[in-house]
Design a protein that fits this description.
Keywords: Membrane, Transmembrane, Transmembrane helix. This is Glycosyl hydrolase family 67 C-terminal domain-containing protein. By secondary structure, the protein is an alpha/beta fold. It contains 34 helices and 19 strands.
């Protein structure tokens, strides 16, 4: 066998191996992306209906004869206030309440007639409930005699709320930018002082009054427990094993004492009103000294070690002794970190409870302590994809792995009713049907993902359906937790603060619905909506009818206007995560413009059509139906006379919010059409689709400008964050031009290769520049001939051999990024430049042209592959195929990877004839190592999150909001040390390469022929 033949076989085998490796990489990428979609089971609530409002009934002047207790006194205040707030009163009535012992059974019987009523209850809780029910009946303008009869005990005895907006200051300046995505409420911020005495007593007194108002309102709505934020802030940790945690004189200890003394009266007030208080915290909760204590004793937050949790339970036991009115703790492990931290406040949390063993160790410790102290532990299953317990919230098998066998009577497990976060279109959370533990269901009144409750959103029928299904399946469910205010960023949406600022009455409906359904799942939800309308807006029957009829359309408007239904109905998986059904509006008000979301969304919508037809146009029409719903809602409300409303301001607020919703949905409609037609063009290359996209883009830009002009800076009706969408439009605008540039570059690149092929076999080689193309072709495909192919070249040929690949590489990468990502260009070109410089140093005084020909030739081939992919519909089409077409993605990655690695193989092979196989291998390894090491160090110095954010902002591949809200590295689980690990690997390659490339003295160098 000739040497040439042997080399050809080796080259062919090498390329086959590289293609196989490329296929493996492609399959690995596809597996890592894990993009899939399957139809999800939808909830099946009854269609909403509006009750026909009867004429209002004026309440009588009520004289209450009841035992003199604190709880009954507060309930009596609510009844008397309700009567006083009524537009008029007719007649008089006495209400007598039998003396009753303390207890939790809140059943009662109401007897009598319009002039004299008597309450019989088996406990004070029942008597108090009867008085609150009478107050609610008065506020609903119904006859108090309508309550006569027996009232069974509440179906769910535990009805908990968050802390509303207690202690939160309504400062418009903090809401004006609309870009503060912090989840920290800053509750009691004006109460805390940085130095002793740590508490501002004037601010504390105001906060106490705020808290008392919230307690009274929550009791009137039917709630009897609250989740109070804080945990480590109140602990001295004096009694921990091998403690104390805080050194003598440490301000953390003195601050904890001051804080629990300040808030103990809050908890005592709740206790005397029959309201349970649970301290709400993320775990592990930390301070600087506490974290140092834990790491010194147990290693870097070893949360699987039961003794670590003994530190917390010892601190909690001490707190319970000091403040006996606390009823337990509420623990979350799935969200923590900087998004919840308050700058300058040394109390924070970490995402470190991520394994089954660590969760079980934590709960075992806390439940044992709770049993011993007669308290309770509420554990949230909200693990949101973090660690081995990441799907505990939605996967019954994972739930069982974590909690089976932990059957403490002190443990209550809290879970959202949706199979995910508080979005529409999600299935019922079936984990609530499983488990032997006590359970409570979480609901959200101010729906964070549906514009923070700024739009009408009557969830009554959905809540009722969900509650009935779950109660029928699991007798262990004993309560609800209603988020009246909390959830998501506090200051990125409208400045609505429960009971104190903005149009909070709009989502008060959902708080009242949840409590009513918790007491009686068969509650007439239409009647609750009617009562809400009467309480807050009007007692005029026609006006009430108009409001309730408008509310029956509110869910359809939300579900079809803010969601793209064909996508929302699917269970989508990607990158090991489960994207929510509203991905085009990303967390929480950012209209996204990234290709990953929009391309996958389009493909799902396209395939949702029936009879082989595309689902694009029906999806667009669906959004316009939602607009029609809001137009009908607005017509109903505006037709009501202002004189029939309780106040002109309330009518104005209602009409304004409908105007705001209408404007927003029209904007979303234009964007929906634009992104779907854009995907359709990338998919089909149809001129009609492109023309439709151009029309949609013009309409979107017009509506976006108007939306921003009208609502930007409006703290009551904030504009959507359109930055990401506008960046997406900017990239899309360039797609057609980039496709034409790519086609031109592709023709030139192919011509270079074709001329090289012809020049290697014909007399064309004598033409100017042909020798360069010949050398490029030969050296890239048969690198062992690189040296001979470059002999005798003219100066022009040499410069072409160098500049053409460099220019093509730069141009290809620039086109690939639509000339918008200089970060991407700098990284790629910088790495190649470092590789080239290091390789040139090893060649030194020898001719560099053989390796330039080999590397440059393969670079041209690699660029041809990319340019071909870009030539259809530009970079947008390139990424469309990557995200949506597994076959094309696999073929592309296979070929591109093989050619990428072939660059280094060819470069090394070209050097063999000059410096030998060992040294050639070393030179290439060293150059690759340097090309990896230096960029990795730069990225590490800048910060991986910062670098990825800059790159992604320019490329538009992943949601723009990731870095602003969650962090790309956190969301994708990329360790912060990744660039340093890459730098370390690059350094090893560099070192090994240098050792191999340097001459080894004392041994005769042998040239290896390949």
């Amino acid at each position: 066998m000739t040497t040439a033949r042997r080399r050809g076989i080796v080259a062919a085998v090498t390329m086959i191996v590289l293609l196989a490796l490329g296929a493996g990489v492609a399959l690995g990428v596809g597996d890592a992306l894990g993009i899939s979609a399957e139809k999800s089971a939808q909830m099946q609530p009854a269609a909403p209906v509006a009750a026909h409002a009867a004429a209002p009934v004026a309440p009588p002047e009520i004289t209450l004869d009841a035992p003199s207790t604190v709880r009954i006194g507060v309930a009596a205040d609510e009844l008397h206030t309700a009567v006083a707030d009524a537009p008029k009163r007719e007649g008089a009535a006495t209400v007598s309440v039998d003396a009753a012992p303390a207890g939790t059974d809140d059943a009662y019987v109401l007897e009598g007639d319009a002039s004299a009523l008597r309450v019989h209850a088996g406990s004070e809780a029942g008597a108090v409930r009867a008085i609150y029910d009478l107050a609610a009946q008065v506020r609903a303008a119904g006859p108090i005699t309508g309550l006569i009869g027996a009232h069974a005990a509440s179906r769910l005895p535990l009805r908990m709320t968050d802390l509303g907006a207690v202690g939160v200051k309504a400062d418009p300046a903090e809401w004006a930018s609309g870009t503060d995505y912090s989840h920290a409420s800053k509750a009691f911020a004006d109460v805390f002082l940085p130095r002793a005495p740590y508490i501002d007593k004037t601010a504390l007194a105001a906060a106490y009054a705020d808290f008392d108002t919230f307690l009274r309102h929550s009791l009137a709505n039917g709630y009897n427990a609250i989740a109070f934020p804080g945990f480590a802030e109140f602990m001295t940790f004096d009694d921990v094993p091998n403690g104390p945690v805080y050194a003598p004189g440490d301000e953390h200890r003195s601050r904890a004492i001051a804080m629990r003394e300040a808030f103990a009266p809050f908890w005592a007030r709740a206790h005397e009103l029959g309201v349970k208080v649970y301290l709400r915290t993320d775990m592990p909760a930390l301070t600087g000294p506490l974290e140092s204590f834990l790491t010194n004793r147990f290693g870097p937050l070893d949360t699987e070690n039961p003794k670590l949790w003994d530190v917390y339970t010892a601190g909690l036991q001490e707190l319970y002794r000091a403040t006996p009115d606390l009823d337990g703790v509420l623990i979350r492990i799935g969200e923590a970190g900087t998004v919840y931290d308050v700058p300058g406040w040394d109390y924070y949390s970490a995402l470190d409870v991520t394994t089954v063993k660590s969760v079980r160790a934590m709960l075992t410790a806390f439940t044992a302590q709770a049993e011993a102290s007669h308290r309770e532990v509420i554990f949230r299953t909200w693990s949101v994809g973090v660690g081995a317990v990441g799907d505990m919230h939605t996967n019954p098998a994972s739930y069982a792995a974590v909690l089976n066998g932990i059957d403490s009577p002190a443990l209550i497990v809290s879970t959202k009713y949706t199979l995910g976060d508080f979005y529409s279109w999600l299935p019922l959370n079936t984990t609530l049907e499983h488990g032997s533990q006590r359970r409570i269901i979480e609901f959200q009144s101010r729906r964070e993902f549906e514009n923070y409750g700024a739009f009408p959103n009557d969830l009554g029928t959905q809540y009722q359906w969900a509650m009935k299904q779950l109660l029928a399946a699991n007798p262990k469910i004993e309560g609800v937790w209603t988020w009246t205010q909390d959830g998501g960023p506090w200051r990125a949406g409208p400045m609505t603060l429960y009971l104190k600022a903005g149009f909070w009455q709009l989502y008060e409906l959902n708080s009242q619905l949840t409590a009513s359904l918790a007491r009686d799942p068969d509650t007439d939800v239409a009647a609750v909506t009617e009562a809400w309308a009467r309480e807050w807006f009007s007692d005029d029957p026609k006006t009430v009818d108009a409001i309730t009829q408008a509310m029956t359309r509110s869910r359809d408007a939300i579900e079809h206007g803010m969601y793209i239904a064909p996508f929302a109905k699917q269970h989508v998986a990607a990158i090991g995560l489960e994207p929510p059904p509203m991905m085009w509006i990303f967390e929480w008000d950012i209209l996204t413009g990234d290709s990953a979301v929009l391309d996958v969304l389009y493909s799902i919508v396209r395939d949702s059509g029936t009879g082989g037809a595309s689902g694009v146009e029906p999806a667009i029409a669906d959004g316009r139906t939602a607009i029609a719903d809001v137009e009908q809602m607005r017509a109903l409300v505006t037709a009501t006379p202002a004189s029939t409303w309780r106040s002109p301001e309330m009518r104005t607020a209602f009409v304004s919010t409908l105007d705001y919703e209408l404007d927003t949905l029209k904007l979303l409609d234009s964007y929906r059409a634009m992104i779907l037609h854009q995907g359709q063009w990338h998919d089909t290359m149809s001129p009609a689709a492109y023309s439709a996209w151009e029309t949609d883009r013009a309409r979107f830009e017009q509506l976006a400008s108007a939306h921003l002009t009208k609502y930007d800076g409006d703290v009551d009706h904030p504009a959507l964050n359109l930055t990401a969408a506008q960046l997406g439009v900017q990239r899309a605008d360039r797609d057609e031009a980039m496709a034409w540039i790519a086609r031109g570059l592709l023709v030139l690149a192919v011509a270079w290769v074709v001329i090289g092929i012809l020049a290697s076999r014909t007399r064309l080689v004598a033409r100017p520049g042909a020798a360069a193309t010949r050398a490029s072709w030969i050296a890239s495909t048969r690198p062992w001939r690189a040296r001979e192919s470059t002999l005798g070249m003219l100066e022009l040929d040499r410069w072409l051999l160098l500049t053409v690949p460099v220019a093509l590489l730069v141009a290809t990468r620039a086109v690939q990024t639509s000339f918008l990502s200089w970060t991407h260009l700098a990284l790629i070109i910088g790495a190649w430049a470092i590789f080239a410089v290091v390789l040139r140093l090893f060649v030194w005084h020898r001719s560099p042209w053989p390796v330039i020909a080999a590397v440059g030739g393969v670079v041209i081939l690699r660029c041809i592959v990319t340019l071909f992919a870009l030539s259809f519909t530009g970079p947008g089409g390139y990424w469309f195929a990557f995200w949506t077409d597994p076959v094309l993605r696999t073929i592309y990655i296979t070929v591109a990877f093989a050619l990428f690695v072939w660059v280094f193989v060819a470069g090394g092979w070209a050097l063999v004839a000059q410096i030998g196989a060992r040294r050639a291998t070393g030179a290439v390894l060293a150059a690759v190592g340097a090309g990896l090491f230096i960029p990795a160090v730069v990225i590490g110095a800048i910060g991986l999150e910062t670098a990825l954010t800059a790159w992604n902002d320019e490329m538009g591949l992943l949601p723009w909001g990731l870095s602003r809200i969650l962090g790309i590295t956190t969301y994708l689980g990329i360790p912060d040390a990744t660039p340093w690990a890459a730098a370390g690997f690059g350094a090893v390659l560099l070192a090994v390469g240098v050792l191999l490339a340097l001459p080894w003295r004392g041994r005769s160098a042998r040239r290896v022929v390949m």
